[in-house]
Hints:
By secondary structure, this protein is α/β, with parallel strands linked by helices. The protein has helices at 20-29, 42-54, 74-86, 106-123, 135-145, 159-167, 184-192, 222-233, 237-252; strands at residues 4-6, 32-38, 58-62, 91-98, 127-132, 150-152, 170-174, 198-200. One of its GO terms (cellular component) is cytosol.
Amino acid sequence: MMQLTDSHAHLDDESFANDRKEVIDRARQAGVTNIVVPAVDRASWNRIAALQDRQKGVHAAYGMHPMFLNQHRPEHLDQLPEWLENHPAVAIGEIGLDYFVEGLDAEKQRHYFQSQLAIARDLKLPVIVHARRAVDEVISSIRQMGGLTGVVHSFSGSQQQAEQLWKAGFLIGLGGPLTYERAQRLRRIVTDMPLEYLLLETDAPDQPGSNHRGERNEPAHIVDVLQTVASLRNELPDTIAEATTNNARRLFRFP
């Protein structure tokens, strides 16, 4: 069976409370051997740590998401390095900038983003980045900070922006949105991009693909993303699965 990695799934989300084990079992049956679960706020760190302890192949990332800005406190930034010293993690995330949602203070977002980038650089951990209507600024921040690796998940930028990220040593994560025929820009990018910079993801429970529109998304659905990438590139699904799983192992240094 193919081995797949879901590089971004919020398995700690409340929508999985009643059937989380079954969701993980379905993922494994689909060939998903590794799932990266990024945090969104301080409260989620505890949930994700417990989930990683219980479930083999589930890997934690800890950070503070820009959309949860009102839940973040300055002391949480102080707590993050100490938490990472005592809780194994494959990345710092989900962090980033979101200029799509109204009412989120841009300067406050920048403060938390830059601070977490610095922690990642100092601890030599990759970052999982959210960038919505903010890709250029994210690229600029990555360049200015230096010494970083990571992935911009649910990438929605241009070909030029993708190339700038690759040159900075970053990967791009693609999921359900790619499966819609209207996503022509994303489809052009994935058709021609160097395969070594691609990660597959679901962003479960959000962003279901075209075969599951209106449903709760889950890691097993990453197979639809795989099939879409393989079809667009005219390559075997096994080839895409092996390459993207190796990319994830290289970036996250799975044990």
